[in-house]
Amino acid sequence: MNSFSHVILKPREELEIQQGFPWVYDNEIQSVKWYADDGSGVKTTSLEECAVPDGAVVEVYTGKGGFLGSGVINRKSRIVVRFIGTEHADKIMENPADYWEKAVARAVNIRAVNFSDIDSCRLVFGESDFIPGLIVERYVAGGSVYLVVQFLALACEVFRNEIVSALKTVVKPYAIYERSDASIREKEGLPQKAGWIYKSGDEVIQINENGCILEVDIAHGQKTGYFLDQKFNRFQIQKFCRGKRVLDTFSHTGAFGLNAVKGGAREVISVDISQEAVDMVNKNIALNNAGSVMKAECADVFDLLKKYEAGGEKFDVIILDPPAFTKSAKLIQKAYGGYKEINLRAMRLLNAGGILVTCSCSAYFDENTFYSMVTHAALDSHRRVQVLEKRGAGPDHPLLLGYPKSEYLKCAICRVM
Fold first, then answer.
1. Which residues have CB under 8 Å from 217's CB, separation 6+?
2. Which of 226, 304, 313, 386 has its CA 20 to 30 A from that of 105?
């Protein structure tokens, strides 16, 4: 045995991991082999009895002794080990600064295939880029590169210094802002934090997406300030909007609506329940000189769809991009009802042959459930629906095979007959 602790799995618990799943749960662990500080040598105990400190790098083995990879242990979380590599731990810890610089470079370099230096995009997508718990967004504003980072798990938090150093070296940003103010950190035994961690700059910046100017509040906006994952989907809707009346719901910054304007829409109504979001949409409307075509309204989308249906309103294009209606497997059925209601009402509000762009960003609401919901919404609205395109997140959000949560975003472009 090498000097690193070994986490031994129960029989057959390795099957999903061998297919690419990047976590080990507490109920999958049979025992832990570790070195005792008192010099008494190697001990084999249960997870609860082992003295391996949280944040240590451990190696994971099958019950028969097969090596699976190395990860960071955290007994405060149900996800006890998050894999950081398929190498042995001594190889990773020999020079961790070099290891993480190479990991960051791999993630950044693959984005160069689809994104130029002037594009805003996600540079690191956590487990999908083999850096668990780490999110890095690149925003390009006024020729300067801002990074917004989230350290959401102990597995990346313990390598914070090495990762930040790697980002400086590989990306050479103007400034880095941290948005580790998510509640998920508390499940990892970590406090929430936010603020500048490298230099400082403007907290509200302007980016260019698909020819639209958008104001992004990196300090106070949702998550990292903006949702980059829909960039290509927003561009794709432009070709359906020329001369059309468009309803953009759950609009956040109004980016879908502004892309509709860019595509030649004759009227766009963007709706969000948050007055702060509506204020931001109005700023973005002004930045794009779109006031003659686009307006923002503060309203509950569920109530507004009912009101429009009762009033006989009709649209040519409707965009449904709601927040995740469920963040738990236990609430899927409740979420199903919510998704179905807005889709059903949207279908009734569309003119014949109208376009419905419908999305779900909940990882627990998988693709089969999502398209089942669309099917039943069509049935109950007495509409026939063609799915013209099945889409997801952009190429800066790669899917990791064996890790279904990486395929969280569903986006269907439908024609409603």
1. 203, 204, 225, 280
2. 226
CB atoms within 10 A of CB 27: 10
80 in Cβ contact with 73 (< 8 Å): yes
Q: Are strands 6-9 and 245-249 parallel, antiparallel or unpaired?
A: unpaired
* pLDDT at residue 2 greater than cutoff 70: no
Residue 411 falls in the annotated catalytic set: no
**pLDDT tens per residue, range 10-30:** 999 999 999 999 999 999 999
Q: pLDDT tens, 177-221?
A: 999 999 999 999 999 999 999 999 999 999 999 999 999 999 998
| Cβ-proximal residues to 186 (8 Å cutoff; 6+ apart), any chain | 192
pLDDT at 159 over 80: yes
- Distance separating the N- and C-terminal Cα atoms of the chain: 66
Q: ∠ CA 159-164-168 to the nearest 5 degrees?
A: 150
Contacts of 278 (CB under 8 A, 6+ apart): 270, 272, 296, 297, 298
Angle between helices 160-171 and 96-111 (to 10 degrees): 50
d(CA 297, CA 309): 17
Three-state helix/strand/coil letters over 31-61: EEEEECCCCCCEEEECCCCCCCCCCCEEEEE
pLDDT at residue 278, rounded to an integer: 96
pLDDT in tens, 96-118: 999 999 999 999 999 999 999 89
**pTM of the predicted protein model:** 0.94
Catalytic-role residue among 50, 156, 359, 361: 361
Identify the DSSP state of 324. P
pLDDT at 331: 80
Distance, in Å, from the CA atom of 39 to the CA atom of 193, rounded to the nearest integer, reads 38
